[in-house]
Amino acid sequence: MLSSALTGTDAILIEVEVDLAMGMPAMAVVGLPEAAVRESKDRVRAALRNSGYEFPPRRITVNLAPADVRKEGSAYDLPIALGILAASGALPEARLDEYAALGELSLDGRVKPVRGALPIAAAVRRRGLRGILLPTGNTREAAVIEGIDVVPIETLGEAFDLLRGDRFIEPTRVDVPSLFDARPDAALDLGDVRGQEHVKRAIEVTAAGGHNILMVGPPGSGKTMLAKRVASILPPLTVDEAIETTRVHSVLGMMEGRSLITTRPFRAPHHTISDAGLVGGGTNPKPGEASLAHHGVLFLDELPEFRRNVLEVLRQPLEEGRITISRVAGTVTYPADVMLVAAMNPCPCGFLGDPTRECICPLPQIQRYRTKVSGPLLDRIDIQVEVPAVKYDELRSDTASESSADVRKRVQNARGKQAERFAASDIFCNAQMATREIQLHCETDEAADRLLESAMTKLALSARAYTRILKVARTIADLTGAKLIGSAHIAEAIQYRSLDRPLV
Description:
four-stranded mixed β-sheet; 3 domains; Rossmann fold; five-stranded parallel β-sheet; Ribosomal Protein S5, domain 2; Helicase, Ruva Protein, domain 3; alpha/beta; 23 helices
């Protein structure tokens, strides 16, 4: 009987071998099983007896091969039970070779859901098997993988009858295109935010170029409200992106009966999170919040309050779009192509630069507060924008703000231009440009060049600020349909480098 083990967001098939021998009745599970797998012998024994089958009074050895891959979780209960029935002659072994099986057994023989159904179904298709037997709660996500029969199993008895040929169970089918047609509209709309028009513009540029953004402003200025609406203006997920994102949620058992994640995820971990919680890890590594936000938005509120070691582990995913975790048992890689949206106060009290409230923080304290966010991390944030307190007139204004749908059209148009520009490379958006691509695609006119030179001199901007300004200006030009980067594009991009300016 075949089952499966998870390695990162992929799966490998595991052969469940069962041997019945003479000797004192006992059952042993070998092949590098963890505690939950070793405990399966008690669940399997009770499930077989309570389902009306005889548990062989023999010495039973269960081998999970390959033996050098760690086996964890309770998903091996069902294949072990079916393997015992086949070894005792109750099931034809030929039928067992056509299917893989996963499921946790209750003591009464019911089959409970497991983690990782989607990547496991993909592994079954690669092996060329006829199908997979899965708990009913997992079949909709697995059925996204075409070319195999995903058979819903409620009880051990149903699986037994199916493999004997005494019962037919209709495989689960999912119409993937209809899932995208039926995806809900974003509940949060950018038009709900009053005022902050320049910040909305910065968010539009962020979404259009795939840039990371840091919003700096006093408490209550709307930073969190704006961040929650970034996903609403991003282009819709493609089928391939949806499957990649769903893999991560499937591995963590977070699908809750859904077939596919069709909207871009938004994750907002608390600042007390550990580095393993943010990027993944643990003794048996699992994905973290950055991977759960794959192809979506990772929002870090109160950025300086995160522990420094936690923030520093974001360097690799922000640069490469993936996270590699190395342990003694092996190395796993998780996808983490995220758009980072961060927010922070301008100073510890939050009121630096506020026209109505006085800041009580001395300059050294403000500098210490800001240096909690390291230079290398800021180097990966293209846009830094100030978010001032909203005036009363703006809060009470009846003027309708532009909706997310309207902004999304411009974002998609700009993304389309970038797709054409980078068609021959593995780059998808302007934020991913390296030095060579900047030289090729960020050509400026004479006025823009003079303005950038003046800004570099007068504002004492660094070399990293120079490249960030060019990339953001390229996105602004894409939004306006311009081929050359003009002075207006450079001027706007310079405004989005607020933390590069001195405090006094």
